[in-house]
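Quick check before the chapter quiz. The format below is the same one you will see on the exam, so make sure you can read both the input and the output lines.
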Amino acid sequence: MISSLFSDSTFIIVSLMALVFTIVAISQKLNDAIKGISIVYVIFILYTLSSENTSFKKDQDISSINIIDYNETEGYDLSEDISNPQNNFNNEFDSLNIDELINDLARKSSNTSNKRSWISSRSLKNNIIRPIKLLSIEIGDNVVSRNIEGKRKNFNTDDKRVYCLTRIENTNDFKTTIFHKWYKDLKLESNILINIGKSYNWRSWSYININSDRVGNWKVVIEDSSGFKYDSLEFSISQR
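Here is the expected output.
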């Protein structure tokens, strides 16, 4: 046991370190440090000897058990014992329901595909541009609280302005634009761009000022940016 202790590399390293620390403590006259190192080193030796003794006893017990196992071979079938793990593995493998695993994987794959298809369909649906609808177009001499007032088709130079109010349905998630185009005697006099937000009843209006130079037959045309004409309304301005 003692010989194995001196052949232990850990014991040698710790002993050398304790020796170095002791020399340093002596040179610095650190008496308390010398005592502490000595106590720790003694505890280490006792612990090491105790561990060696326990390990030695365990080795003896294991050796005796091995001797008994090898001597008592009567009624012990080595080949059967070796084959048991393989038999157990085969039984466990056979007990697995392969069809169920395949079906489960197929269901998961189908669910993933359906989810991707749903996301793609929803994205495609959101990207579809739905046409706007012109709900109404009105002409009058004023707009109050987003409603046209003084509706008529004949104006004169005593009036100040002519208003055109439109109501549009836009169910898209983005804004679009329309144009109020004012024509006098088939000639474009004013082209007013109007932004239309998402709404089921988006109200917007434009107007022209009345003066003697604007006497004649007029028409307001509602168009989009592609030039598509939704509707139009005619009116006249006369000299008073």
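If your answer matched, good. DSSP finds five helices and ten strands in the chain.
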